Fold this sequence. Notes:
Oligomer: heterodimer
Number of strands of chain B: 10
Helix content of chain B: under 10%
Strand content of chain A: over 45%
Distance between the termini of chain B: 38 Å
Largest sheet of chain B: 6 strands, mixed
Largest sheet of chain A: 7 strands, mixed
Distance between the termini of chain A: 36 Å
Order of helices and strands of chain B: EEEEEEEEEE
Number of strands of chain A: 11
Structural class of chain A: mainly beta
Shape of chain B: globular
Amino acid sequence: DAGVIQSPRHEVTEMGQEVTLRCKPISGHNSLFWYRQTMMRGLELLIYFNNNVPIDDSGMPEDRFSAKMPNASFSTLKIQPSEPRDSAVYFCASSLQYTTEAFFGQGTRLTVV
Amino acid sequence: GESVGLHLPTLSVQEGDNSIINCAYSNSASDYFIWYKQESGKGPQFIIDIRSNMDKRQGQRVTVLLNKTVKHLSLQIAATQPGDSAVYFCAENTGNTPLVFGKGTRLSVIA
């Protein structure tokens, strides 16, 4: 298995632009997580899905952030409009169940200028 | 006051020595614990896990110890190698919540 695949690996965008991050979880995994990692706050859980259904989005910082999982093999995290404080590394992870070991992708490094 | 940044605790060890990385957790209901390793530019990678019905688990060169009485978890790495240099995170959850990650410890191996 190729593991969790995220794209793009790096994204530089201007403030106010829309940003879409993509994730392909490991086949057969039922749960998918979006995390954000910064020096200030460490690794934060933004939202997680179980069987394609959002379970808890209380970690999403603002209404500018939204996430979807239209099917078992694809999820997106969208920021609209983006702001410089959104600059971080965003990780997608998947697991068999949301209470078990999570496997992480390589992350997307987002820079908003 | 507010923290101005996340200053990771750092552990420096000589190559070949054993390393011990510690983690304190706060939720007494947590029953599953994982250690992750994150190398620069990569996502966290699973190292070893342990459930609350155990107090010790061994892997290849790594051992995890769990002390539920004082809510403490440790990761021991035997014969530390330069490739072990990374940030190490402990993570915990209960039976119906996703993993919650600690702040991490940076391990620096001196050749």
